[in-house]
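Please check both lines for our workbook:

___
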Amino acid sequence: MACAVILAGGRSARSGVQHKSCRKVPDDARTWIDRQVDRLEHAGFAPIIVVTGYRPRRVHLCLHRRVTLRHHFKAGEGPFSTLQRALQNMRKPVLVVQTDTVLPSVSDLQRLRRVMQNKTIAAANMVNDRGRGGHPLILSVFMARNLRELPCTNSDARLDRQLNYLSSEQYIRLKGRIDHSFSRLDTQREWCSARIRTRRLP
């Protein structure tokens, strides 16, 4: 079994008063974050933890699922510190999801979860057929602990740098059929694109 954390600690300044997590894909009554929680549950992740930072009430108001809530009071220290807050007290593999990530299919999420049965693997993620992407990312217990204990003032306190230190045997990239990641979900065009892509997923 593995748990999942949804990182919703950013300012989400470009999306205006409404947080990205509260947006709705057209033709779906659920909020974006409710969609994420539903898919993670169907893929067998438990518990599901939502980590907030700036203006957490915006996220709480649009979350209608039973999850564990964590608040990062020092969100101003940067995204790596928010990740460290999410990884506190983790004793099993953890799937890391950014709030603006379009999750892959349930079967792909289950593939990620099964990868962690190999004790030599420290991290694995989903990439598209061009090798791009990076989320969602699953971390082993050992890797999560190493990230948690790294001083956030360290020059290497960046997730991408820590992943680059891993060998190809330790860091596995699983190919998916489509690009699941969005750099931002602010304009109507971007949300329409999200709608098209999510409709392709079971």
